[in-house]
Amino acid sequence: MLNVVYAEIIKLKHTKIYWLILVALIPVCLWSLMAVSPKVGPDGTIVPLDLQELFYRQGMIVTILGPLLFSLMTGYVVAREYQERTINQLFSYPVSRVSFLFVKLLVVWILISITSILSFLIVVSSTLFVIHQLDLTTVLLGLKMNLLICVLSFGTIPVAAAISMVWKSVIPTAVLGGGVSLIAAICELGHSMDVILFPWLTPYWPVRDLAQGLAEMGPNPYVIPALVILIVTFVVSLGFCIFYYTRADVHSGT
Amino acid sequence: MNYVLQTHQLTKQYGSHAIVSDLNMNVKAGDIYGFLGQNGAGKTTTLRMLIGLIRPTSGEFELFQESFHGNRIKALERIGAIIEYPGFYLNLSAVENLEIHRRLMGIGNQESIDEVLTTVGLFDVKKQKVKHYSLGMKQRLGIARALLHRPELLILDEPTNGLDPGAIREVRELFLKLAKQRGITFIISSHLLSEMEQVANRIGIIHKGRLLEEIDDKTLQQKTRRFLEMKVDDDQRAAYVLEQKLKVTDYQVAGTGILRIYECLDQTDLVNKTLTDQNIGVKEIVLSRENLEDYFLKLTGGDKLA
Ligand SMILES: Nc1ncnc2c1ncn2[C@@H]1O[C@H](COP(=O)(O)OP(=O)(O)OP(=O)(O)O)[C@@H](O)[C@H]1O
Ligand SMILES: [Mg+2]
């Protein structure tokens, strides 16, 4: 199994997939730079840096761009085998097709984690760099938010995988992912609590919990139904992926 | 007899359209089995079934004398295959691609990568990205990959596609060497008769999804024997004379006034003289060869083969 993971990781060498991570990291960097640079308030005093606010914005950036970027990553990892006509070879190995599916999903999860954790590290290090001190409680809040983003974002990944394996192309996933990111942007800027019911927006739940000064505050009452919807989405789409990936006739190259 | 592959009524349908019908293939250990058929005959479809890329609609088969169904993983460890097109990760070098193969096949030593690359003559370009390879180089890399895990059976779908004549000869010699030295069994599909004749010791002819015939080496040789064909005015008497005077026993009357003898091929003069001395009119004598092409045309009822 380790060999299968290793093989899947070398396949990503010299690919543009890492640019996708950068697409998320660059706005995080810019935002952090802006936030940590000293600001002068209306009364002439220096406004102290609000780390929680910074994490909140970082979370928004990752969860808005996430649907697009993460589905592109999934689409690439799954569909390239068809587009580059390697699927014949892949499925001729003495390895079950389910293992390949799981390893591909694992790789996507690793990519999501890298994106989220690097964003977190950017916020932490830019803060440290400028004001040389950190409020540990807030850092932990930020870390918790990012870990939850990783887990919750993964919930919709099998949907992207399913679309990519059925269409054997990254394009449908990319288009849908782009659409969902747009919806995410609109919903997150509206700050409404119930948007997390939409499975691609469930990752917004831990982000919104860090928000300050919104009209509706306090624990999000939609968490349980949102999680149920997300889990159902995950299970159903993963089930479909397993069924389709293991059963389908493979014709690529014709 | 030790069969590496036997298929039983293997059938693949798409909708109501049968692409492969009731195929009964028999490949023995050590065979170089030429799987011959025109474009669209169903070669690739059959080979896909053999490594489990697609499921048969009905029928079954055994690889290494074990039913494939339920033993897929075990069988695949012993097979090297190129189906349709040698697919590689273009962003990676030849070595990296083979390294992936080595890992997924679960085999140990890394030196074998250099060894197979040398075998197919790609050692010097092993660090280049496969993106920059020509089709012929990819084809050779595909063969290297199929060999890397020392398979017992190689299933190659048109492996000489994209190779120039020189490379085709090299590859052919490589196959013959591997069959001889390592006892590897080959199933090689092709639409080129001439190519198959030179390498295969058994040929299965598939046409419109049906296996028309499986012929072995010896039968093949008979089908492709050289002979003297003569037009004479009395074939019976001519045959009698040749039997008596020249001790010719291997002959055949191939039509009224047409006699084929499979002996005395370089004694056209003598044959001619013997017959005319007995007052048998000889209109023509030509040295000719029954080839697989004619044979194929006969079998398929006239459909030309490339
Ligand atoms: N997935 C599919 N659905 C429907 N028909 C198919 C499918 N795959 C192949 N066919 C048809 O099956 C027939 C046989 O195809 P196949 O690829 O097996 O031929 P082949 O002998 O390998 O030909 P070639 O020499 O061109 O490679 C073709 O007529 C093709 O159109
Ligand atoms: Mg073919």
Automatic annotation (TrEMBL), chain A:
Thylakoid in keyword set: no
Pfam families documented for this protein: ABC2_membrane_4
Keywords: Membrane, Transmembrane, Transmembrane helix
Listed transmembrane segments: 17-36, 56-79, 100-125, 145-167, 174-202, 222-245
Keyword NADP annotated: no
Protein name from the UniProt record: ABC transporter permease subunit
Organism: Shimazuella alba
Taxonomic lineage from the root: Bacteria, Bacillati, Bacillota, Bacilli, Bacillales
TrEMBL record, chain B:
Signal peptide location: none
Regions annotated as coiled coil: none
Ranges where the ABC transporter domain occurs: 5-233
Identification of the protein by name: ATP-binding cassette domain-containing protein
Record-linked Pfam families: ABC_tran (PF00005)
PROSITE patterns assigned to the protein according to its UniProt record, in alphabetical order: ABC_TRANSPORTER_1, ABC_TRANSPORTER_2
Keywords: ATP-binding, Nucleotide-binding, Transport
InterPro entries linked to this entry: AAA+_ATPase, ABC_transporter-like_ATP-bd, ABC_transporter-like_CS, P-loop_NTPase
One function term, GO molecular function aspect: ATP binding
Lineage of the organism: Bacteria, Bacillati, Bacillota, Bacilli, Bacillales
Organism of provenance: Shimazuella alba
Family: Belongs to the ABC transporter superfamily.
